[in-house]
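#structure-requests
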Amino acid sequence: METYLFETPVSCLIFLITILISICGFNNIPFNGKLMLHPYSVAKGQKLYQILSSGLVHQDWAHLLFNMLTFYFFAFNLERIIGHWQFGIVYIGSLILCDIPSIYKYKNNFMYHSLGASGAVCGILFSYILFFPFTKLVIFPIPIPIPAVLYGALFLLYSSYLAKKQNDNINHDAHFYGALSGIIITALLVPSALIDFFDALIGI
């Protein structure tokens, strides 16, 4: 644990705070209501803090587990690769940018709310994939190792399916925009990452 705190302090802080605040909100609807994103209010310049706070709360244990497992698989190694403040920019930048399309889309829908770190986690996932697209992962319930780039594609397909159902408060649309944000921010911070990614694909 001390090694993680020393080598990846930003990842550890985000990981622990997200889990603790999410657990606090599971049985506290007013608490979740204050932190989740309400595009109608944000579009009018109110409750702007929700752009960040919405990434600290989750719908239920399954939602939290799905996001935090993905975070665990990729975030700590990514911070070691690109650095502490760079990692923070990728995560927070993806969290902010992934919400902007939803704020615009639902700006006139008073009833719409969303929550979850999915957009920011997607930003981390796809940032990592730029560096190691063919890292093999064993992801439940798939019984064989799969490349990280394939996991990323499956992640987005699953998110797209859930976005079409849209029967919960989870902002599944943010997955795509979070992924795109992670790629763009990483390419700006580490321009060689995008070149190396395409070189790896061409090499295959």
